[in-house]
Design brief:
Ubiquitin-like (UB roll), Rossmann fold, 6 helices, 2 domains
Length: 228
């Protein structure tokens, strides 16, 4: 008689477990009433909420924070996400987005890159446009070149918003193009050369004149070519 009793006991436990699971996961047990999304700058709210995948009124217990985090972090602008369920009815999501600092060309398309030189996404309508295009030198790692140039421009903030394109050349040389169309030639001594350019800009406003090129690769000297 003990065996049938044992089987009935196990069946009873299984039934209680199933009923308990259904009870806990049924709609309305902890209905989701509010979703607090913060940190969105470039990510559309509709895209973010779609990635969350939880509708209003669904059971908050059925929302897995790790799954929501993984979905959110797959979005192009999103760097990191924290997800927290606040019972009885709130889902709190804090987003840290990536910061676009420039653009690179890949297969005839422009892509936004972040401060670590990593590709964010292809440039599309509505994306920030006032960013320099960065062309890395042949054989050099794109990410390292982007980071180096962004750090250089950060040290020379007066020039930062003037640059439209930066082209890396072999031997650590760079060619900068301003938004006014002035070509600036730099050697490896970029800091010293940009300091000289700053003095010329302060005294003569060279980058605002009708000039075509500023050659700074000769130590301590600057050669200016005027536009015809």
């Amino acid at each position: 008689m003990r065996k049938p009793i044992g089987i009935l006991f196990l069946i009873g436990l299984a039934a209680v477990a199933v009923l308990g699971w259904r009870e806990v996961n049924k709609p309305g047990w902890f209905p989701l009433q509010e979703m607090r999304l913060s940190g969105l700058v470039n990510t559309p709210v509709t895209q973010a909420t779609e990635a969350v995948g939880a509708e209003k009124g669904s059971n908050l217990l059925g929302v897995d924070p790790r799954t929501v985090q993984a979905r959110m972090e797959s979005l192009p602008w999103v760097r990191s996400v924290s997800v927290k369920r606040q019972f009885p009815s709130t889902l709190v999501i804090r987003v840290v987005e990536r910061v676009a600092v420039g653009m690179v060309r890949e297969q005839d398309r422009l892509f936004l890159v972040d401060e670590y030189g990593m590709t964010i996404k292809p440039l599309e309508k509505g994306d920030p446009l006032m960013l320099p295009i960065i062309v890395s030198a042949p054989g050099e790692e794109k990410a390292a070149q982007v980071v180096w140039l962004i750090n250089l421009l950060a040290k020379h903030a007066w020039l930062q918003n003037r640059i439209s394109e930066a082209v890396g050349l072999p031997g650590g040389r760079w060619t900068l193009y301003t938004k006014q169309g002035v070509k600036v030639l730099l050697s490896k001594r970029t800091d010293q050369e940009l300091e000289l350019l700053k003095r010329l800009q302060d005294q003569y406003a060279v980058l605002d004149r009708k000039i075509r090129q500023v050659e700074l690769r000769i130590p301590g000297r600057a050669m200016v070519r005027f536009a015809l």
